[in-house]
Automatic annotation (TrEMBL):
Residues 118-273 form the Calcineurin-like phosphoesterase domain. Keywords: Exonuclease, Hydrolase, Nuclease. SUPFAM superfamilies: Metallo-dependent phosphatases. This is Exonuclease SbcCD subunit D. One of its GO terms (molecular function) is exonuclease activity. The keyword Ribonucleoprotein does not apply. It holds the Pfam family Metallophos.
Amino acid sequence: MSDEFLIHCPVPSCDYTGLVASVAGHVSGKQDKLHSWERLEYRGANDFKSDTDFITSLAVTQPECPVSGCSYRNTIPSIAAHVSGKKDGRHDWRRLEYDGAWDFRTNYHCDQTANPVSVLHMTDTHIGKKLGGYGSQQWPVDCVGGFVNAITEALLLNVDAVLHTGDIFHNDRHGITKEHIEACRTQLVRLRSAAIPFYYILGDHARKAGQQQMNVFETEGLACNLSESPTTIDDGLSLYGVNFHDEDWWDSPNWRPHSTERPSILALHQSMTPFTKAQRAECALEVVLDRFQTAGGPVPEIVAVGQFYRQIDQPVGTSRVICGGATERLGSTKSSLAPCVGLFRSDNGNISYQRRLIP
């Protein structure tokens, strides 16, 4: 995706400009008929962001080739490929005082001043679940209320994005009610109205009905499913995500992640070692991170995880693994963990984390 430069809003009469993710959020947040993904002939924000050729045509000012006298303009990766592909003496990395294409791309970003970025992290909202706990130790829970409180916190903090690491709906094989769909939609509309994008991955409770409903929300411009390709937040942070998969998939994951020069967060929702006993785990996080990097991805500074109704904050390899807990009391005991969200802040290449309790 071309996200290294400013672009115009795709609505001709609109003078809004911003980075790709910002423009996508701007269109999703507008309520007028012109700012409609359907009218613009896209299925949603993700579909728009994947249209590299059109995005390039919307560029406010495209970067130019560093070779004096060369008129080539395009994205930074394309310029790097352009210089590497030329065989004349002028398009020579040593002459340009760069140690190859990657050095050029890295130094270009290092020369830019990225704004601080804040992302609210929530997980395991389980909209539709009525009881917490297990077996004879259960208690009533208000998972819709927990989701509302988490969204309210995002709005109060005025974050740049919301990250959900799985199990938005409970979907205990009985489907998802219209009431719970509308309750979720109402909160996502609140975010869209504030131009705050909602990024998510699917958890094990999504199943077919959950996936279909999230696809509907994407079409409505209310949500974006993360993938192995980085989603950039205000040029200061990259988000990756992998939907829930069973053990067989993890034996030979089919992915081709793209690297990034920005600090990154990888979102996962799995039972995995070292946080789950090996016999119950679908994968080993240390192996996942190694394969992710081997396949071309970065070593993420943060791995934001769902699935665990407990607090996790510990290193695995060189990554920091974070789980604050669910947005309702869903653990093994009613007093085990208060409802919470997390706040990630990326500034000057560093990502900080703060766990925040919600009502």
